[in-house]
Amino acid sequence: DSGVTQTPKHLITATGQRVTLRCSPRSGDLSVYWYQQSLDQGLQFLIQYYNGEERAKGNILERFSAQQFPDLHSELNLSSLELGDSALYFCASSVGPGAAYEQYFGPGTRLTVT
Amino acid sequence: AQTVTQSQPEMSVQEAETVTLSCTYDTSESDYYLFWYKQPPSRQMILVIRQEAYKQQNATENRFSVNFQKAAKSFSLKISDSQLGDAAMYFCAYRSKGGSEKLVFGKGTKLTVNP
Question: In whole angstroms, what is the distance from residue B111 CA to residue B113 CA?
């Protein structure tokens, strides 16, 4: 158990819908990262937050948005869902922005868009 | 932009034998981190081993060791005395030392361990 929690574990929804994925980082970790794992694209970095502020952005679609709240939990919002958004979404956390800090991954949320 | 390539989509090994998974990467940076992550059927991403580019000594963690060739931009993972529990997807990953701490992953290698 990494100490990072993600809810829900599974999500099935229809095209055009909107969903919210939730992540709680390890106690004491200030940085949260979101990654998408799909068969087509592999594991890709989406976005990083540090202590409530966006720190880095990767291949995140405009239909996707995220935020980190004062209690440090983070939410990834996916809207106007398409079939191609079906993937495993991971949240990871680390102590801070320093590259030396290990990222601990949550168990992932499996999103299926039908 | 950095890229990571794993040229072996699948590998297999007999229990108790040794297997080596390959990884190459492309970067213009001189200092960075390299990682091997394991993803078993449970889907959990588990850090196996980490290498800092400025350290010439290859990292070792119990039965797992790496062969880091900086000039060749190669970072292979050797698993000794393979166990059934080693069966998983293995991902090689790169992380810059400055700027974003994002991980750049390879496509992965599926390792099967035969009894």
Answer: 7
Q: Hey, what are A12's tokens?
A: 């099935």
The angle subtended at Cα B4 by Cα A81 and Cα B75, nearest 5°, is 145
Cβ neighbours for A78, distance < 8 A, ≥ 6 positions apart: A18, A19, A20, A21, A63, A64, A85, A111
What are the tens digits of pLDDT across the range B85-99? 999 999 999 998 877
- Over residues A34-91, the pLDDT tens digits come to 999 998 889 999 999 999 999 999 989 999 999 999 999 999 999 999 999 999 999 9
CB–CB contact B101 A107 (8 Å): no
CB A114 within 8 A of CB A13: yes
Q: Is the peptide bond before A8 cis (omega within 30 degrees of 0)?
A: yes
The whole-angstrom separation of Cα B99 and Cα A56 is: 9
Under an 8 A CB cutoff, do B101 and A48 touch? Answer: yes
CB contact under 8 A, A88 and B43: yes
CA distance A55 to chain B (A): 8
Is residue A64 classed as helix, strand or coil in its secondary structure? strand
